[in-house]
């Protein structure tokens, strides 16, 4: 079966978003429920500036959306299927080998 270039680009974009531990934590937090940036920064114990950069990356990748709520902005997964995909991906990786560490785990990059 032939894979379309757009399929590869979408998967690569998702992979780049997951390549950073903070973005993974953000996606997992948003999988649980939509949240405001201040609450996410507190929950993840990171600065609001750092959080903002990661949220911008996830927005640019099309994985999260910003929803205006009055004078505040709430973030949520762009599609509920992303939450299911995160669960399935985590389960698949854990099923293969949970004790492995990727040699590039410390490398940072954005989508």
Automatic annotation (TrEMBL):
<dbReference type="GO" id="GO:0046686">
    <property type="term" value="P:response to cadmium ion"/>
</dbReference>
<dbReference type="InterPro" id="IPR052543">
    <property type="entry name" value="HTH_Metal-responsive_Reg"/>
</dbReference>
<dbReference type="GO" id="GO:0032791">
    <property type="term" value="F:lead ion binding"/>
</dbReference>
<dbReference type="InterPro" id="IPR001845">
    <property type="entry name" value="HTH_ArsR_DNA-bd_dom"/>
</dbReference>
<dbReference type="GO" id="GO:0097063">
    <property type="term" value="F:cadmium ion sensor activity"/>
</dbReference>
<dbReference type="Pfam" id="PF01022">
    <property type="entry name" value="HTH_5"/>
</dbReference>
<dbReference type="GO" id="GO:0003677">
    <property type="term" value="F:DNA binding"/>
</dbReference>
<keyword id="KW-0238">DNA-binding</keyword>
<dbReference type="GO" id="GO:0010288">
    <property type="term" value="P:response to lead ion"/>
</dbReference>
<dbReference type="InterPro" id="IPR011991">
    <property type="entry name" value="ArsR-like_HTH"/>
</dbReference>
<feature type="domain" description="HTH arsR-type">
    <location>
        <begin position="4"/>
        <end position="100"/>
    </location>
</feature>
<dbReference type="InterPro" id="IPR036388">
    <property type="entry name" value="WH-like_DNA-bd_sf"/>
</dbReference>
<dbReference type="InterPro" id="IPR036390">
    <property type="entry name" value="WH_DNA-bd_sf"/>
</dbReference>
<dbReference type="GO" id="GO:0003700">
    <property type="term" value="F:DNA-binding transcription factor activity"/>
</dbReference>
<protein>
    <submittedName>
        <fullName>DNA-binding transcriptional ArsR family regulator</fullName>
    </submittedName>
</protein>
